[in-house]
Write a structure and sequence with these properties.
Elements (H helix, E strand, L loop, with lengths): L2 H12 L23 H10 L18 H16 L1
Pfam families: SLH
Protein name: SLH domain-containing protein
Length: about 80
C-alpha cells in the first residue's frame, strides 16, 4: 500500500472533512500527489496525522512502512480521543 492510499483510507475512516481546494505547498513534491488524493492529504496534514518526510516531501507513491503505519494509527487514535 502506498503512503497516499493509506492517508486516504485513514482520513475516510475518521470522517475528516476534506476541502476540494487543498493547499499542499508544504510538500516539495506536491505535484506528484494525484489530484483525487490531494484533499485527503491536506486534511490529514491539517489534522496532524501526517507530517511528511524529513526532506520536505510527501512521497505519495512510496510504499508505506510498518513504522509509518503505526505512527499514523497512533495519531489516529489520539484524534479519536478528542
Amino acid at each position: 500500500m502506498t503512503r497516499v492510499e493509506m492517508i486516504v483510507m485513514v482520513t475516510r475512516a475518521l470522517g475528516i472533512q476534506v476541502e476540494p481546494d487543498a493547499d499542499l505547498t508544504m510538500f516539495t513534491d506536491a505535484k506528484e500527489i494525484p489530484e483525487w488524493a490531494k484533499p485527503y492529504v491536506a486534511a490529514a496534514y491539517k489534522s496532524g496525522i501526517v507530517q511528511g518526510k524529513e526532506n520536505g516531501q510527501f512521497a505519495p507513491d512510496a510504499i508505506a512502512t510498518r513504522a509509518e503505519a503505526v505512527t499514523m494509527i497512533m495519531r489516529m487514535l489520539e484524534l479519536m480521543k478528542k
